[in-house]
């Protein structure tokens, strides 16, 4: 969900950084704001642009020098800038103090949302392990719970993303509060904010049926208008993870209207996996047809783009969705199986892309990919055998648990079965065909 965080960072830009200019604050507070921005970008007056090479240390130094004078808005600005400027491995020791300042400085909901977003970004490497962070997060959690009823949709999305990403103990409690207060205000939320909120619920495995139903009804009534590929893929993924009813027919129509080539690899594979997962639980024929439609469109798109830029998880999700749906339809006797001439070429393309470098795959990803390809008779020994041999020789097979190992062994057994039983039949068929063609030619010349 990396692109969600990128979107939220841009959304935060319009919050604390400019609000001081609009709220009649004191000259000293404006001076602090200017110092923070100058420290971040190295300009005077500051201009939005590339961060200074030593921005993290400079921002922390400017905030520390003014620690006694910082208010909630300036403290949240410092957090926001630190979260954007920090390089991997850098530790922002002043972050807990800034969070405490935000919470204790008559913070507005937007300040708390920005502080939550920054806390999640800063916790990627070392935030949770540093002294003082537990107390700061506890104070932030209590402040967010107290003010979530006053938050706008953007603030709700920022806080939901932050606490779902941090996976702290209070995440479910905060998300439940946000969902409760948001259910009656669905019409005020943009599709992006609804998608992020439902994604956060699914990320923490928190099933709030009322909110999910309200979002589904809003999607259905608007036919998904203004929902973009990322929003659609996140919402259908959340519906699949939480096992909630979803408007599959409208989702399929919206995806087709957006055109599948606009879906990035992550969005395409997520949408395919979620469509299969929802389709397995569906009983309505119209919904099952919608699933077939989405999977076939996804498979056609893979044939066109040749799985370029697909990461191992994307390859596995797309292949797993196609193969499992085919198997489900056959076992359940459903007439919604994808056409072989659409499904099988896509699986071969996914397998060929994966075979370029099996070392990138984890045990679960590789075993599921192999199973998916082999189950549809698309596993080619010459193409996938050598890289699989190298994978085994590199001792990566030790990471396989019993289920993964059984799936891999089953895949190879299916492939061997094809070599033993199907190829001779094909050779016989080919020889008969040649004889018939020869007879036709002889008849023609008589």
Automatic annotation (TrEMBL):
Q: Which InterPro entries match?
A: FAST_kinase (IPR050870)
PANTHER family attached to this UniProt entry = FAST LEU-RICH DOMAIN-CONTAINING (PTHR21228), LD45607P (PTHR21228:SF40)
Q: What is this protein called?
A: Uncharacterized protein
Native source species: Durusdinium trenchii
């Amino acid at each position: 969900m990396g692109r969600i965080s990128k979107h939220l960072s841009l959304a935060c830009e319009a919050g604390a950084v400019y609000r001081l200019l609009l709220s009649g604050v004191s000259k000293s507070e404006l001076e602090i704001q200017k110092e923070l921005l100058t420290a971040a970008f190295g300009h005077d007056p500051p201009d939005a642009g590339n961060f200074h090479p030593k921005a993290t240390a400079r921002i922390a130094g400017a905030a520390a020098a003014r620690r006694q004078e910082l208010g909630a808005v300036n403290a949240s600005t410092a957090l926001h800038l630190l979260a954007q400027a920090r390089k991997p491995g850098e530790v922002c020791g002043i972050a807990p103090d800034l969070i405490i300042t935000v919470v204790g400085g008559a913070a507005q909901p937007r300040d708390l949302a920005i502080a939550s977003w920054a806390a999640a970004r800063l916790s990627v490497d070392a935030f949770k392990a540093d002294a003082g962070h537990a107390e700061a997060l506890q104070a932030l959690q209590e402040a967010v719970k107290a003010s979530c009823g006053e938050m706008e949709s953007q603030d709700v999305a920022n806080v939901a993303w932050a606490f779902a990403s941090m996976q702290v103990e209070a995440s479910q409690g905060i998300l439940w509060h946000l969902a409760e207060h948001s259910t009656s205000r669905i019409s005020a939320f943009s599709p992006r904010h609804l998608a992020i909120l439902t994604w956060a619920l699914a990320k923490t495995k928190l099933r709030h049926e009322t909110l999910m139903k309200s979002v589904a009804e809003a999607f259905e009534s608007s036919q998904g208008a203004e929902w973009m590929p990322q929003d659609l893929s996140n919402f259908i993924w959340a519906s699949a993870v939480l096992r909630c009813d979803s408007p599959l027919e409208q989702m399929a129509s919206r995806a087709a209207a957006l055109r599948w080539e606009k879906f990035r690899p992550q969005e395409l594979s997520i949408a395919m996996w979620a469509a299969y997962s929802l389709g397995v639980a569906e009983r309505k024929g119209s919904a099952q047809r919608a699933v077939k439609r989405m999977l076939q469109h996804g498979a056609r798109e893979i044939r066109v783009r040749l799985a370029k830029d697909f990461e191992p998880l994307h390859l596995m999700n797309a292949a797993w969705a196609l193969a499992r749906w085919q198997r489900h339809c056959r076992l359940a006797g459903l007439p919604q199986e994808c056409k072989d001439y659409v499904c099988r070429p896509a699986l071969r393309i996914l397998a060929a892309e994966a075979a370029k470098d099996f070392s990138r795959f984890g045990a679960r990803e590789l075993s599921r990919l192999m199973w998916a390809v082999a189950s549809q008779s698309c596993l080619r020994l010459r193409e996938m055998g050598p890289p699989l041999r190298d994978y085994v020789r590199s001792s990566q097979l030790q990471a396989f648990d019993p289920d993964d190992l059984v799936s891999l062994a089953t895949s190879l057994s299916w492939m061997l079965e094809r070599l033993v039983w199907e190829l001779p039949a094909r050779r016989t068929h080919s020889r008969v065909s040649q004889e018939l063609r020869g007879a036709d030619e002889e008849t023609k010349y008589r």
